[in-house]
Write a structure and sequence with these properties.
Helices cover 54% and strands 6% of the residues. The protein has helices at 10-22, 35-47, 51-58, 66-99, 109-115, 137-146, 159-165, 202-207, 220-234, 242-253, 258-268, 271-284, 301-311, 318-329, 332-339, 361-377, 380-397, and strands spanning 105-106, 128-131, 150-151, 172-173, 179-183, 210-212, 215-217, 342-343, 352-353.
Length: 398
């Protein structure tokens, strides 16, 4: 049976305790949690794929109820088995593409799980991300379909419009059941979010790619940049607190040229987001070798607090909160485009309206979206979520 989200007053406390557990600490306040609070904490852990890592840190910790430790151990075992399938699909998929003359690069979790974490089970993945180029991504997509990979879900844009307006193609599912996302760019195009997207110097990033055995990856320093931009600019932190562990384990596994990193951040316009995420990492893992530049202004205290909450935000209300945040942060024009299911790229060639026929047509979709948004915003925690998302977007653009 699903456990409901904890009430407003309990959420900040549980979030604080869960982040402490994720960092390997066991605060004394754990002794005061009742069964309902433990269920709420475990619910958040499951939602954000944290249970295997909690098992790693606390499998023998008597402060954790036996039932939770047993559940975390089972999540670890399931993740270990899933990692075997993921490894096989990662090798097979990249081999298919390379044999066709393409040069896929494995992103984020594919490198972290097998090269930064102590065991790949500690870094569960919902999918495998592979970077192609805008010129090769459609042929790659069609090649995989010809080898039995099936498209997941409805396709709202043509493939050509997807390449122009999105960062990745519609998800594919491998014959083994792994979700594969083929990316044509590393992060979102400008115009997709309520704040400006960072500039991308992808040619230089691709040139720095590394190989390990049969697979090619972003260089660790570029993986760090990708983690930061993906977390704060592409997702406004709804990727969850796993990003903090990702960065802590990355920094322990690979050296970073901090002068070069911050020079890239300034050139791309993403130094604010990088400063925020890395400041959160320093709180999460004080021993992590993070270097912040002396001229980087500190994050406002309220922004650091709300960012901690956004890392553990409710995922089933993020769309409603995001719609409302768009009205606050980006104005009525951007809000109207979201409600009208329109997308506009940085090239300003034209607006494209998504094909929603598979969802009952535009009128049905817009009506359902508005009804759900209004219903969700009746809850105080969703209004807070929306306010915090808008605050983050405004600060990123300040």
């Amino acid at each position: 049976m699903a456990v409901p989200a904890p009430g407003d007053g309990a959420l900040p406390r549980l979030r604080h305790l869960l982040l402490a557990l994720l960092a390997g600490r066991a605060p004394a306040e754990l002794a005061g949690l009742d069964q309902e609070a433990w269920h709420g904490l475990d619910r958040m852990a499951a939602l954000h794929r944290l249970q295997p890592l909690l098992h790693h840190h606390h499998r023998a910790d008597p402060a954790i109820p036996d039932s939770l430790r047993a559940g975390w151990a089972e999540a670890y075992r399931a993740s270990a088995l899933a990692s075997l399938v993921l490894a096989a699909d990662l090798t097979a998929t990249t081999a298919l593409l390379e044999q066709a003359g393409m040069a896929p690069l494995a992103l984020k979790g594919a490198w972290l799980a097998w090269h930064a974490y102590p065991h790949p089970a500690l870094r569960p993945m919902r999918d495998l991300d592979l970077l192609l180029t805008p010129d090769t991504v459609i042929p790659a997509f069609e090649l995989l379909q010809a080898h039995g990979y099936r498209q997941e879900g409805a396709q709202h844009l043509t493939l050509e419009e997807t390449v122009r307006l999105d960062k990745h193609m519609p998800p594919l599912v491998s014959p083994r059941g792994t979700v594969i996302e083929l990316h044509q760019r590393l992060w979102e195009v400008d115009g997709r979010m309520d704040h400006a997207a960072p500039a991308a110097r992808e040619a230089a990033i691709r040139a720095r790619a590394i190989r390990s055995g049969p697979l090619a990856y972003l260089a660790p320093q570029d993986t760090l940049a990708h983690l930061v931009i993906h977390a704060v600019y592409d997702h406004r932190l709804d990727c969850g607190p796993l990003v903090l562990s990702d960065i802590a384990f990355l920094l322990a596994a690979a050296p970073v040229d901090w002068d070069a990193f911050w020079a890239e951040a300034r050139a791309g316009g993403w130094q604010r987001g990088a400063g925020l995420v890395l400041a959160l990492v320093k709180v999460h893992a004080p021993d992590a070798q993070v270097t912040l530049p002396a001229d980087l202004p500190p994050c406002p205290a309220d922004l650091a607090d709300l960012s901690t909450g956004l890392l553990l935000q409710e995922l089933d209300t993020r769309q409603s909160a995001g719609v409302a945040a768009t009205l606050t942060a980006a104005g009525p024009g951007a809000f109207l485009r979201r409600i009208l299911a329109r997308r506009k790229g940085a090239d300003d060639v034209r607006d494209v309206t998504r094909d929603l026929s598979s969802e009952g047509g535009f009128a049905a979709w817009a009506g359902m979206r508005l009804v759900r948004t209004v219903r969700d915003l009746a809850r105080r925690e969703v209004r807070d979520q929306s306010r915090d998302l808008a605050r983050l977007s405004r600060w990123l653009d300040a």
